[in-house]
Amino acid sequence: MQRLAAAKQKIKNDNVTTAALKEATRVIESSSKRIVHFMFDPKQKVKQSPFTKKLNLFLSGELETAEQEEHEKFDAYIEKFVEDTLEDGDHNPVTFEDNEYPELELNSINHISFAVANNPFFKVDPVKYYPQVIVINKEGKILAQYGESECNEDAEKMFPSMKDRTNFRDDKIRINDDYKIEMKLDEFKDPSIQVILTCRTYDLRKEKDIPDNTHNDAWFRLQNEQTSQTLDYTKLKKLESKIPEGYEEGEVQDEVPEDEERKIRNELIYLAGRVYCEPCKKTGTNKWIFEKWNQVVASEKYP
């Protein structure tokens, strides 16, 4: 009886959650109420962070060489500084260029989600894309991972609002997503935590007769989960130019388990961006920022 009561309570809670989600989602379709996000572009470049600098070098395959050269130059600079032999024009060799990636401050926004639609306007079959969210700390340790993977109990305790959502399409609104992962930023107590947003792909090589335009309108987007308003979106079709040159997914027949030299599918991974924290020393508050990457890598090179 206790198990039955617990199961009934879970179903009841799920129904309440679903109703609340639909109510929030439909705010954007209201004929009497509007919630507006103002986005301002200060036209002022910001410097790339150490993480972003390393990301660019990593993607270009130059990280190890660049770091070694930088360390050598820095050691030489410090030696000159200690010996008081610095000359005019000598400067700290550790520099940061202007950040090439757009950034968006998530002011007054706490409940967000990263969503993927294989087609925002109607459901398509088969689905190809799904979101993946990875929470890491400053040491690079993965604290939580959502999106076609089971999350451990520790992650669920640390970030109880993080949830995978599927099968929530609502015919009463104009655009929908297939999958989304929601989170509340105030649950990330450690300001060194950052959230990596990626879009992954299912293996459709065995599917037959899929029309070429089935996934042409597919997108991923960051949204205000409280109002279902889009903060930023990207259509995957526009990232085709970022696909690595000579990319091949591989043949299914090459992946026979009995083969000692078994090959693994070479998957395209879309690096949408990250959400990171920038603590403000004056106010003692945390400022959360979305950094948009829109890069594409292959799992064969970056497993």
Brief summary of the model shown:
This protein is α+β, with helices and mostly antiparallel strands and 303 residues long. It has helices spanning 2-25, 50-60, 63-83, 153-158; strands at 103-105, 111-117, 129-136, 142-146, 163-166, 179-184, 194-201, 219-224, 229-235, 268-279, 286-298.
Topology:
Blueprint: H1 2-25, H2 50-60, H3 63-83, E1 103-105, E2 111-117, E3 129-136, E4 142-146, H4 153-158, E5 163-166, E6 179-184, E7 194-201, E8 219-224, E9 229-235, E10 268-279, E11 286-298
Antiparallel strand pairs: 1-11, 2-6, 2-8, 3-4, 3-7, 5-6, 7-10, 8-9, 10-11
Main beta-sheet strand count, sense and barrel state = 6 strands, antiparallel
In the CATH hierarchy, what is the class of the largest domain?
Mainly Beta
User: What distance separates the N and C termini?
Assistant: 47 Å
Helix-strand string: HHHEEEEHEEEEEEE
Helix content: 10-25%
| Tally of distinct domains | 2
- Name the beta content range: 25-35%
- SS content category: alpha+beta
Mean pLDDT: 86
- pLDDT below 50 for ≥5 consecutive residues: which ranges? none
Overall 3D form:
globular
Q: What is the count of helical runs?
A: 4
The CATH topology label of the largest domain is: Lipoxygenase-1
Could you characterize the architecture of this molecule?
The protein is an alpha+beta fold and 303 residues long. The chain folds into 2 domains: 61-96, no CATH class; 101-245 and 263-298, Sandwich (Lipoxygenase-1). It is built from 4 helices and 11 strands; from the N terminus they run H-H-H-E-E-E-E-H-E-E-E-E-E-E-E. The chain has helices at residues 2-25, 50-60, 63-83, 153-158, and strands at residues 103-105, 111-117, 129-136, 142-146, 163-166, 179-184, 194-201, 219-224, 229-235, 268-279, 286-298. A 6-stranded antiparallel beta sheet has the order 1-11-10-7-3-4. A hairpin with a 4-residue loop joins strand 8 and strand 9 (229-235). The longest helix has 24 residues, at 2-25. The N and C termini lie far apart (47 Å). The relative contact order is 0.15. The mean pLDDT is 86.
